[in-house]
Amino acid sequence: MSILVITHPTKPGDGELTILKSEGQVGFESAVQTCSHCQAVVEIHRKDKPYGYCRKCDHVLCESCARLAVTQGCTPFKALIDRYIEEQYRAVQSYPLAG
Question: Residue 32: enclosing H or E segment and its boundaries?
């Protein structure tokens, strides 16, 4: 049975992915970061796993968000959450008061 270990050694969003074999030996190890646009886990420093970088938010992006950022610009996940909360607040404010 393999064991998956994810650690956060340096700063928020950074981490290390380790898969241990049943014998306790390291089967796979990779540095990971969180995509700032969709919160997906991105393996970095691997030639077979493409990823992007957003200069505006200064963070690593997954491959699909990197493609979208070229045409649609920078849209961090936190901005999407803030926009959703604002929309919900405005919707509630438009409800008539019960009298």
Answer: strand 26-34
* CA–CA separation, 94 and 20 (whole Å): 54
User: Within a domain: residue 98?
Assistant: no
CA distances from 57 to 13, 36, 45, 74, 81 (A): 13, 8, 20, 7, 16
Count the neighbouring beta carbons within 10 Å of the beta carbon of residue 2: 9
pTM of the predicted structure, to 2 decimals: 0.64
Residue 44 placed within a domain: yes
Span 45-90, pLDDT tens digits: 777 778 899 999 898 899 999 999 999 999 999 999 999 999 999 9
